[in-house]
Write a structure and sequence with these properties.
Order of helices and strands: EHHHHHEHEHHEHEEHE
Oligomer: single chain
CATH topology of the largest domain: Rossmann fold
Structural class: alpha/beta
CATH superfamily of the largest domain: HAD superfamily/HAD-like
Largest sheet: 7 strands, parallel
Shape: globular
Distance between the termini: 45 Å
Strand content: 5-15%
CATH class of the largest domain: Alpha Beta
Mean pLDDT: 87
């Protein structure tokens, strides 16, 4: 794999030499930690560690309709990058496909299941992985004190509720957003670009943190933002970093010293 010019100057003790890798972000603009003014976190698999038992327990919570979960996740994967412009249009498309795939043929019934069964169970399941990112809350406080804007962009809705389930205070972030609520799924870059406009921060001064290159990384690339990938595998893949290493690197970001703290806002997040 060919290397690109270094995009971010790194403290070598953090073992982040892989920032040069094409696997990391093919179009990541040149930049340095001193230039980063905003950090956008993915949620699932990023702000918590995805445990092997998470999906099976979630399926049990959805009994007796747990088979729908497998179909629904498969459908969401099929719609990666889809941009329907509105949450209603996107959910209707996925619910319609779910109705066909399950043989139930009732789109409205599937919409009700997604909203009244899937999401409440998903929220409760956050307790299974609560506290799986040690040092996260202190790190967020430090970054905010340095004037760095913080956001969460999840492919799923109910971001604030799920953060609370993880023991992460939503008001530690300037913006909470969901691609689903915006009518699209990653790697569609539209929500990232909207967030940059809301903050008034150039895209090249924003870093995206996520666990998937094909969604988080590609969206960051399309938005011309920096990207760092987190991995919880025993053997960390090339171009990815452990939580400990990633956290240490983020704590090297000096931010805009003396910047006023910003009042958090919630974007496209349903109660």
């Amino acid at each position: 794999m060919n290397n690109m010019n270094s995009h971010i100057r790194v403290n070598q003790s953090h073992d982040l030499s892989g920032l040069n890798s094409e696997a990391n972000n093919k179009t990541c603009p040149d930049g340095s930690p001193e230039e980063i003014r905003g950090v956008i976190f993915d949620l699932d698999g990023t702000l918590y560690q995805m445990k092997w038992y998470f999906r099976p327990v979630l399926a049990l919570m959805l009994m007796p309709s747990s088979l729908r979960l497998q179909h629904y996740m498969s459908i969401r994967k099929k719609h990666m990058g889809d941009d329907r412009k509105s949450a209603a249009a996107l959910l209707d498309a996925m619910a319609s496909e779910l109705a066909r795939k399950t043989g139930e043929g009732d789109t409205m019934k599937m919409l009700v299941w997604i909203r009244s069964k899937f999401y409440p169970a998903f929220e409760r399941a956050m307790n299974l992985v609560r506290g799986s990112r040690p040092g996260l809350n202190p790190m967020l406080r430090t970054l905010r004190e340095r004037g760095i804007r913080l956001g969460v962009l999840s492919d799923f809705s109910r971001v604030a509720q799920r953060l609370r389930g993880l023991g992460i205070a939503p008001d530690q972030f300037d913006t909470l957003a969901s691609t689903e609520d915006a009518g699209c799924l990653k790697p569609c870059p539209r929500p990232l670009l909207a967030l940059a406009r809301e903050w008034g921060v150039p895209c090249e001064k924003i870093m995206v943190i996520g666990d998937r290159q094909d969604t988080d990384g590609e969206a960051a690339s399309l938005a011309h933002m920096h990207f760092l990938r987190i991995s919880d595998l025993r053997v960390i893949p090339e171009g990815a970093y452990s939580w400990t290493t990633l956290k240490e690197h983020l704590l090297t970001l000096p931010g805009a010293n003396g910047s006023a703290k910003h009042k958090p806002s919630v974007t496209n997040d349903h109660s």
